[in-house]
Amino acid sequence: MAKKGKAAAAAAPAQPEPPAPEAEAPPAAEPVPPVSMVYCKVCSYPPEYCEFGAHLTKCKEWLKETHPDLFDKYWSDEALQTKVGTLSLAAQAKLEKDMAKAEVKAEAKADAAMKKKMASQVIIKRIERNKRKQITSVFGLEAFDVDLKKAAKQFASKFATGASVTKNPQGLDEIVVSGDVSDEILEMIENEVGVLKGIPVDNVELVEEKRKKGGE
Ligand SMILES: [Zn+2]
């Protein structure tokens, strides 16, 4: 083997031995450093996809603060130049304007939804129909993205009683459950049982509707 190699080397003209094989070997042996994926804390996309989310301005602020290198990579003047280099100036301006508009709209929408949610009240009402019959109505769950039919089903099976979605006198949906289960429902909301998730207990009010004196 050694002899053969030597002979081959000797046969080659005065050229020095190529260092290539030796030089290439060490890097290949080195372990590849783990690639740590970065996800945007604002929109949860990888930063290169932030522009498809609805919070680009906030995304960019976050990225600049936490990953200045990535920020430069995606949002430096050069990066943007490359990206929109093929668009005309007018098209660029329009694109930016459209994006800003969409963003403002989305932010406003998210804001309004949050405000509505925070202001929304879930009202659990204990209603005394007569001495022997009480019902419990639950109003406002849909503001917290609770499926009313599913919630009614959950109450029915939990309390082994009747529960249904009906329209209240104001024409709005509410869940009516047979029997006085108001305390139990409040507890279920506190414990986020089943579909009753994400309802701040501060937004839940327990009220009582007594039979009017002299009525019935
Ligand atoms: Zn983002």
UniProtKB/TrEMBL annotation:
Residues 1-29 are annotated as: Disordered. It is found in: Cytoplasm. It holds the Pfam family SUI1. One of its GO terms (molecular function) is translation initiation factor activity. One of its GO terms (biological process) is translation reinitiation. Keywords: Cytoplasm, Initiation factor, Protein biosynthesis, Ribonucleoprotein, Ribosomal protein. It comes from the Eukaryota. The keyword Ribonucleoprotein applies. One of its GO terms (cellular component) is cytoplasm. Residues 122-193 form the SUI1 domain. The SUI1 domain may be involved in RNA binding. Interacts with the 40S ribosomal subunit. Belongs to the DENR family. This is Translation machinery-associated protein 22. It comes from Roridomyces roridus.
